[in-house]
Amino acid sequence: MPFIQIEAGKMNTEQKEKLMAEFTKVASETLGIDATHFYVLVKENDADNWGVGGEMLTKLLQRNVKN
Predict the structure, then answer these.
(1) CA-based R_g, the chain, Å
(2) 49 in active site
(3) Do 9 and 45 meet the contact criterion of CB atoms below 8 Å apart?
(4) Residue 30 CA to chain centroid, in angstroms?
(5) Per-residue pLDDT tens for 17-63?
(6) Are strands 3-8 and 39-44 parallel, antiparallel or unpaired?
(7) C-alpha of 52 from chain center
(8) What is the 3-state secondary structure (H, E, C) of the chain?
(9) Which residue out of 1, 2, 14, 39 is catalytically annotated?
(10) How many whole angstroms separate alpha carbon 11 and alpha carbon 34?
């Protein structure tokens, strides 16, 4: 039971489905394991949960939008 975990920001359902399908396809081809055996977990993280350079990502993004 191969397991793939993806962590990213907020995504819509179509984006999650595409990521799951593409990661599974590449892993299946690379490892020679049938795609039906893969489990994929997508963990979505709010920008408030990320920090870059000691600053909350939400604040960095807001500042970049203003510039």
Answers:
(1) 16
(2) no
(3) yes
(4) 20
(5) 999 999 999 999 999 999 999 999 999 998 889 899 999 988 988 88
(6) parallel
(7) 18
(8) CCEEEEEECCCCHHHHHHHHHHHHHHHHHHHCCCHHHCEEEEEECCHHHCEECCEEHHHHHHHHHHC
(9) 2
(10) 27
Structural domains of the chain, with CATH? 3-66 (3.30.429.10)
List Cβ neighbours of 31 (8 Å cut-off, separation of 6 or more): 2
| Cα–Cα dist 51/14, whole Å | 27
Q: What is the pTM of this model?
A: 0.75
Rounded CA-CA distance 39/29 in Å is 15
* Cα torsion 53, 58, 59, 62: sign: positive
Residue labelled with tokens 């039906």: 36
Tokens of 3: 């397991």
